[in-house]
Design brief:
alpha/beta, 8-stranded mixed beta sheet, 5-stranded mixed beta sheet, 20 helices, disordered C terminus, binds fe (ii) ion
Length: 591
């Protein structure tokens, strides 16, 4: 008899579900990929159903559902927020709504929404983050650092893990939060909270760290792992805004309206914020190393997706080896919830070793694609049984400067496209960044695209002496080739190293491109339109292909050039550019 544990994250940012069977990961998917609602926080019933189907089990065969945070503790924090003396009536009204939404909700929804009657395990949010890293790291022992906006009360935790499980020995509590520090300045810079932090990180290299003193004054470092936000600069406790008028006065310049021009001032603030975040993380990582003595560090939580900070922690920090769970944000919490439930049920560590790929989502057969194409009258080229020719035909088009929508195998779990649902192009062409932005991504011109490189060639092109399969750190470009479409303004790149064992077809494509051009690198960005989740199904890919006007779609064994799309579809005008959401100063909606 197998032990089937379903892990669930929900009700905050990115809902997700995974299946752990006998301590080994079977599948995992974010609800947004299936519902097509970006960052969908609702109970992930579609993802839950996918996990049952992928695992070949029915509801009665589920031994446990593990939930990634404790709603009772979260409720206590929400009530504390509702009692803040300075809070506005509007903020109080909203917090009452959130309290009502938390009260008794989780178990009721799991019972009624999923029809599940068996055992439910509830975890603390940061324990789920910690476990999502350690139990998937392959380390025998490790120090653990989790950093996010907020869980129940904790916003940062420090711990150690080994044969006796995970011990989180220190935490920083809400409202002190490095995640909220970064989000508040993100909002001040005119970007959307919980979406724009990545943009601020991308903006930082354009600036100079002229505002380090101002950023430092927002946070006071304490003993050991502690720090405190200087709350007069933040409004998220009392108002529906992340930052206060005091913060505006500190910088002396009004907040940037969303979508307005980015000035050197904004670059400089972004650079200063990134600098101070790295400074604090490095100090806390040194404390953690001294306390645990481990040579290994595991990280998770949304702040662990800051790949520039990660690179500095690895390069300048005291740990020899670093594992960051690739779905480090809240979606990945379901992995940790399932792993801890496994420990509670069996008394043993899950068998799962170090994650060497993230292709845990839905996959589709070439037969599924053939049926789709037949139904839509698209005349795709059929390469079934001729993978080598499919690769060569794709290389032909990449070498001609075409942009390829690439859909192969099971979808990635986590925020990065890693060659299963990717848009690919020749990184040597300087015009490629603008062209992809104009056709599909419609994103800010300052943000770089990332390179994917054959693992065995990585060291020749990037200052990287180890595998980096999940794009979780940056490194300097040292390539003898000119790679303008994937090189950031400071000469860095967010590299994905590609192993044949993890993804043979994507590695085969890189090999084919190298044979043809001498370049083992491709530009790789996620396969989605701006504001939409990454495509999941062949139909999603076809729709994105038609809407985006990219040149070629390669979906499993089929290849479609734009000319093969029915003319009545091609004549449809592309959708207008979406304005960036006009809620750039908004506080976290489900705080
Ligand atoms: Fe979190």
């Amino acid at each position: 008899m197998s032990l089937n544990i379903l892990g669930i994250s929900a009700h905050y940012h990115d809902a997700a579900c995974c299946l752990l069977r006998d301590g080994e990961l079977v599948c995992a998917v974010e609800e947004e990929r299936l519902s097509r609602v970006k960052h969908d926080p609702r109970l992930p019933w579609r993802a839950f159903r996918f996990c049952l189907e992928q695992g070949g089990i029915t509801l009665p065969e589920v031994d446990c559902v593990a939930y990634y945070e404790d709603p009772a503790k979260k409720l206590a924090r929400q009530i504390w927020m509702g009692l803040q003396p300075g809070s506005s009536p509007e903020a109080r009204r909203k917090i009452h709504g959130r309290i009502a939404a938390t009260l008794g909700r989780v178990e009721r929804e799991i019972r009624e929404g999923l029809g599940y009657e068996g055992r439910i395990e509830i975890l603390d949010h940061h324990l789920a983050h910690a476990a999502s890293s350690f139990y998937y790291s392959g380390f025998d022992d490790a120090a653990i650092l989790t950093v996010d906006g907020v869980g129940e009360w904790a916003t940062t935790t420090f711990g150690r893990a080994g044969g006796r499980g995970i011990e989180l020995f220190e935490e920083v509590r809400f409202p002190n939060s490095l995640g909220f520090l970064y989000s508040a300045v993100t909002a001040y810079l005119g970007f959307e909270v919980n979406e724009g932090e990545y943009k601020v990180m991308g903006l930082a290299p354009y600036g100079k760290p002229r505002y380090i003193d101002q950023i430092r004054s927002l946070v006071t470092l304490g003993e050991e792992g502690q720090y405190r936000l200087n709350l007069e600069y933040f409004d998220f406790l009392e108002q529906e805004r992340m930052f206060s008028d005091r913060l505006v006065a500190l910088f002396g310049i009004p907040p940037r309206p969303a979508e307005s021009e980015l000035l050197p001032f904004h670059h400089d603030v972004a650079r200063s914020l990134q600098w101070v975040l790295e400074e604090i993380l490095l100090e806390k990582v040194r404390f953690l190393h001294g306390k645990t003595g481990s040579r290994n560090l595991c990280m998770a939580g949304g702040v662990a997706l800051n790949c520039v900070a990660n690179a500095r922690i690895l390069r300048e920090g005291p740990f020899s080896d670093l594992f960051i769970q690739p779905a480090a944000g809240d979606a990945g919490g379901c992995l940790g919830a399932a792993a801890v439930a496994h420990v509670r049920l069996t008394g043993e560590r899950p068998r799962q070793g170090r994650l060497d790929h993230m292709y845990w989502g839905p996959g589709y057969s070439s037969r599924d694609v053939a049926e789709l194409l037949a139904a839509t009258s698209c005349r795709g080229l059929d390469f079934r049984g001729r993978t080598g020719e499919l690769i060569e035909a794709t290389v032909d088009r990449l070498a001609e400067g075409k942009i390829i929508g690439w859909f192969q195998g099971r979808m990635e779990f986590g925020p990065r496209a890693l060659g299963a649902r990717s848009i690919l192009a020749d990184p040597r062409r300087p015009e490629m960044r603008d062209r992809i932005n104009a056709l599909v991504k419609m994103r800010e011109a300052f943000r770089p695209f990332a390179p994917a490189v054959l693992a065995e060639r990585a060291a020749a092109h990037f200052d990287l002496d180890h595998r980096s399969p999940f794009m979780l750190e940056t490194s300097q470009v040292i390539s003898p080739l000119d790679l303008p479409a994937v090189t950031h303004v400071d000469g860095s790149a967010r590299v994905q190293t590609v192993d044949r064992q993890a993804t043979s077809r994507f590695a085969g494509l890189l090999e084919g491109f190298e044979r043809r051009t001498g370049c083992p690198v491709l530009l790789n960005t996620s396969f989605n339109m701006r504001g939409e989740p990454i495509v999941c199904t062949p139909a999603d890919a076809l729709l994105c292909f038609v809407h985006s006007q990219i040149d070629t779609l390669v979906v499993e064994d089929f290849l479609l050039d734009r000319e093969q799309v029915p003319s009545r579809w091609r004549e449809l005008s592309p959708p207008p550019r979406r304005p960036e959401a006009a809620i750039s100063h908004q506080v976290y909606t489900l705080l």
